[in-house]
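TL;DR need structure tokens for one chain.
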Amino acid sequence: MQSILKHLKGDRTIWIVVFFLYIVSILAVYSSTGTLAYRFRAGNTEYYLLRHLVIILLGIGLLFVSHKIRYKYYSTLSQIAIYIAIPLLLFTLFRGTSIHEASRWITLPIINISFQSSDFAKLALIMYLARMLTRRQEYISDFHTSFLPLIFPVILVCALIMPANFSTAAVLFVSSIVLMFIGRVNVRHIAVLLGVAIAGAGIMILILSSMPDGGRVQTWQNRINSFTNKEQANTYQADQAKIAIATGGVIGKLPGNSTQRNFLPQAYSDFIYAIIIEEYGLAGGFTVLLLYLILLYRGIRIAHKSPGTFGALLAAGLSFSLVFQAMINMAVAVNLLPITGQPLPLVSMGGTSLWFTSLSIGIILSVSRSIEEEQNVSENIHVVDGTGETT
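>> reply
TL;DR here they are.
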């Protein structure tokens, strides 16, 4: 055990939080995929458990490898990533695989594995934005030489994601705004960006709604109507989630005893938090919430301690993005927000989302590892030998 732990560098608290979330994911996904097993696998419930275990093991591998790479290399890698992400988003938009009436996936030939290009684009954009903000700190208040180059990739990536996945585009845009604010971008410039984004989103919605099939606009309208006009709209998902939460009580029905998993659509993904509360009660739901808040707190501490601007922005941007997405998922499950389709990071069933989340946490741990190494070097410099001389 000690031989394994010595290879896990960086913030120990984050490691503990991540492995707890992995365990919650295994238990919750195994419990909530019973209906899928009986519908598609002749009742073989172990199939989805083993599949999810493989995904998690791959995620742990990605986390381990990414945390071993010095975070400064991600500055260069971000340039490559953003140039790959934009063509992938374009391909997804026009030729992507459509699942659940949304073209968000790319299916890799031969191996026949699908992944969401937006997951890759989120990570690429935050890394690239951290790099751009770092390189422009000396003239960060200048509109033309600093702000305009910053907003172009943000607007382009979010605009390419939005037609098929409005909620992901919104989460990424808000995360970018927060990262710009942390990076000392002029607040008036950020206000201009917000105005342009709202206007641009309005125009895009009008364009999409004028198309023969209406794009995803009708889906967005239905979700908002279901949330705001509960008496007349179809609120089946929200109602089933409420039942799961209400029947969970304080301590829950205990693992594997959920009944709403048989009625709640996407119980293993978008509404997995409702299943967690049903089986583990409010105590379990609060514990999961606390784990994400701890993750955010430790990410902010790493950003604060980072000696370099790039490391600080990288840790802050990735931490906020992950926890913000988690808060949205949990808010939807408890009916505080309309349905968005956002998975719960590290917990919901799925491949690419869990993998890129693991990569993101690995990068945060890479920043933390560099801080530890610099502290160790500093301590060694000040070691005093028996003669009173500094070695």
